[in-house]
Amino acid sequence: MTDLALHRHKERGSSERATLDAILDDVLAGTLSTVVDGEPWVVPMLFARQGDRILLHGSTGAGALRHVAAGAPAALAVVAVDALVVGHTTFDSSANYRSAVVHGSLTPLPDDERAEALDALSERILPGRSAEVRPMTRQEMAKTLVMSMPITPGRFLAKTRTGTASPPDEVTQAWHGIVELRTVALDPDPAPTSGAAEVPRSVRDFAGARVLA
């Protein structure tokens, strides 16, 4: 089993579910990793936490996704960079961040759970959108692979850094401190084929929130 213990800056690590859940619920995308034919495989993916599991989806035509869906060990990593920590030297510079890695095996969801899981994924990313558009067709469902990864004690680790730059251990006149970072939602930009359709409530609410993780 993979050793998830931190061996450096142990104070930044956490195995608390509340810490993990807060990070997973605040970050929209992560990277899913596994090994395919002896080679590393990593792909960025949108995801959603639903209780004690993480939901992911992709095309049924993606061979590597079928590989992890068949039970290959996998890991999902997520990170949000909150600030640049500008030290008095480049060696002492860092970043404030929230990150998590969850290990486990992915299981394809049965047909009677897939529609609800896909709605959960949509609602996680853009709350309210599912009710504004037609349901997925049977053909679209057939092209979509929906998987879940269990959140199991001992199989995840969260790590965070907060605070300002470390105090210099030498005499220096170099400026040091932090530069906070934010991801901001801009005004909705309709597609040309959207015509005169009004911007829906889900998009207005999302854009109105402005600051994202």
Automatic annotation (TrEMBL):
Top-level division of the source organism's lineage: Bacteria
InterPro entries named among the record's database cross-references: Pyridox_Oxase-rel (IPR024747), Split_barrel_FMN-bd (IPR012349)
Pfam families named among the record's database cross-references: Pyridox_ox_2
The protein, known as: Pyridoxamine 5'-phosphate oxidase
Gene3D superfamilies: Electron Transport, Fmn-binding Protein, Chain A
Source organism of the structure: Knoellia locipacati
SUPFAM superfamilies (alphabetical): FMN-binding split barrel
